[in-house]
Structures are given as structure tokens and as C-alpha cells.
Specification:
Number of strands: 9
Order of helices and strands: EEHEHEEEEEHHEHHHHHHHHH
Strand content: 15-25%
Distance between the termini: 31 Å
Structural class: alpha+beta
Length: about 300
Amino acid sequence: MKIDGIHTLSTIQEYFDFINFKCPVFNGFAIGRLEESAKVIPQVMPPYRKRFFKIMLILSGEIDMRNNDNEGHLKTNTLFFSGEGHIQSWESIAPMSGFVLYFTSDFYATVHKKNKLHSDFPFFTQNASMNIAISEKESEHLKRTCENIVTLSEQPLSNKEDIFRSYLNIVLLESKNLYEEKIGTNAVVQDSDKRILNRYNQLIEQQYGTTKEDVLKTVQEFADGLSIHPTHLNYVVKSLTGNTALQLVHNRKLQEAKSLLFQTSKTVSEIAYDLHFDNPTHFVRFVKKKTGKTPLQLRNT
């Protein structure tokens, strides 16, 4: 399915069908070997938006990856993270080996709360670093965990999905420790204000990659969606992030604009209307104000 000219893949199975990869999916969870997927996936992957999460452990090989407006050259001993709704594209440089885990928020939420994926694991947020370099020893440790999951996937166990969730949580928690060690991100402590901020960020994210006509634009509309007063929403966002509630909306819109400018050949006018600007001139002014460059100048940098 295409939304705003980008393939939107709602399920893991849709993604596998799209890249012609044969891998079992267990009710919102799958694990594959990179060396197997490398045999069938396209060398150059066009931009697509996915409705599931992805963690990739690269043991060897290289790939140029774009995730939203982030771009990176991934190689041996790298952990890569991509959250729900992110836009991705890639160009394969050298055959890879390793593992890739896919899972949906619903699969995780059977035991844990959905919003914990965003609040507890910083690498899934929109502005997070998409990858970290890890040591060979750390890679080997994660490799053993992934090998265990693959072995379990091949056994006829009645409680297989419950075991997958336990292993997934181990991978997430260990990845979080590595991420915070490498990046220096502090753990998020949930309180009422931070829950509001997390819900607000999730609501902002829901405005992208959807065909619905009633896209939220104003802080008042977002506040109504959260059933709180806009003044309180603005206070919470400002106290926790240093930005106003409207600035968070604009920051996410700018990030989406960059993703479309960098990963697609869509015209400035097409992107403007995709992002629900009244006309392309308003979009150009918006980008110019935020970056000091026009959309075309930004695309050519």
C-alpha cells in the first residue's frame, strides 16, 4: 500500500512479501539471519514506512542505511534500531551476517505496556541515534541470545511466543544498557508529566503515514485528543523538553520533510501537500525559518 507515495507496510508479513524474504512470523514477532535475507532482498531498497520495530545485529558486512533523516554506514559489530513508523531505505555494500528481530507493539504489549517501548528504550524515539558500535565481546554475547531464539523458533513448543517475549525483553534491556553506555542517555523515569509527554509524542507520530483526513495540526487539537487543557500540555512539554508543545509538532514535521527530501524524488510541492501545508510557499518558508535553507538547498547539501 502506498500513502503519500511511500510504501507503507503495516505488518511484518507484508514487509517479508515486499522484499521476497521467507521467514516465519509468530503473531507479531520474527527473527531472521542477515545472511539469509541478503540472498533475496534488493541491493537498493526504496523508501518505505513500517508499522513495527526492528533491531539488527550486524556481525559482518556493510550497508548504507537511512532511517528518517539519519544516514549511516553500518558495518561489523553494530547494533541498529528502528521504531514504529520510521521511514527507511538502504543500499547494500557488502553481504552481511548477523540477526534481525522484528516485532510489533501489540506483541510486546501482551506482557508490557506499549508506551514503555518509547519511554524505556530511548533508541526507538524519532530523534535517537539509529545505531551504536559495540565490541566483539558484546556482539558475541548478543549473538548467543539470538541463536537461542532461532533454535526455539524451530521447535514445536506450545508456549513459544511467551518465551520469545522473554528473550525480546532481554535483548531490549541489554541493548538499552549498551546504548546508554555508548551514547550517554539516561534512563527515563515515568511520572504523570512524562506519561503525558510520551502520549503526546505518540499522538504526533500517528499523524504521519496515514490516509485519515482529520490530521491534527494545532496544540488545541492535540490537547483535546489527550483530554487535557492546552495550557497544561504546553507547561508539561516545556518543563521536560525546553520546547513548547507547538515546537515539538514543528520539529517532527521538519524531520518528516527531511526524510522525504533526502529519501525520495518527490517535488517540493508534493511534499508540501503530503505534510498538509496550505500551499508550497508556506512549506518553503517553514523549512527556511527552521534550517536557514530552502527545501531544494537542503536536499542538495
